[in-house]
Amino acid sequence: MTHQHGYIQDKQRYLARLKRIQGQVGGLTRMIEEDQYCIDVLTQISAVNSALKNVGLLLLDDHLRHCVAEAVKNSDEEAEIKFQEVSEALARFSR
Known about the structure:
Blueprint: H1 11-33, H2 38-74, H3 76-93
Helix pairs in contact: 1-2, 2-3
Pfam family, one: Trns_repr_metal
GO molecular function: DNA binding; metal ion binding
Family: Belongs to the CsoR family.
């Protein structure tokens, strides 16, 4: 049996969110090409950053509820590895 990631149940929802973000990034490109006002571009950059952060937080929640919870059930060693992964991911995410 292959391991399924925590987000698998909501894969289509994640893909839809990421496609929207792709559209926002495309909009940013057009804004620069069309010489839009700096503050308007910065506002859109902030919106993209926020959208990406929200996807990341949802993935983190799914990971904790599925992958980490499963590791805790399996063994202390497996749980420790998952806790270390989450700690490192949070450090990267918070930069």
